[in-house]
Task: inverse folding
């Protein structure tokens, strides 16, 4: 007889079942996927905030914003998920599918990568 991975109750039903209920499945997965340290939680929060700011300012998929506007909204230029170097030598910094690159006069081109 199999037991639930979360509460150790006996499982009835399909042979491949791992949990006795949806609430046990959710509780188990929430524990596993929880940010394990404050350090990770803080970084993930900064990434989420940066992403929300870019998505808010870049509704059409391509736009322009000043450094001051980004900073006023709380954007932190030290946190991004990846860097893209183009063949023409431009460097884009991305937060998942939202990106930006530096232009002249403290402006940034905001772009959205098609997924």
Result:
């Amino acid at each position: 007889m199999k037991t639930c991975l979360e509460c150790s109750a006996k499982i009835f039903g399909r042979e491949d079942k791992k949990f006795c209920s949806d609430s046990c499945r959710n509780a188990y997965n929430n524990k596993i996927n929880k940010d394990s340290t404050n350090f990770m939680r803080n970084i993930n929060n900064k990434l989420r905030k940066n992403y929300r700011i870019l998505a808010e300012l870049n509704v059409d998929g391509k736009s322009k914003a000043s450094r001051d506007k980004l900073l006023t909204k709380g954007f932190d230029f030290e946190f991004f998920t990846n860097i893209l170097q183009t063949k023409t030598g431009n460097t884009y910094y991305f937060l998942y599918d939202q990106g930006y690159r530096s232009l002249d006069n403290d402006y940034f081109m905001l772009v959205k990568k098609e997924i």
Summary: DSSP finds three helices and five strands in the chain. The chain has a mean pLDDT of 94.
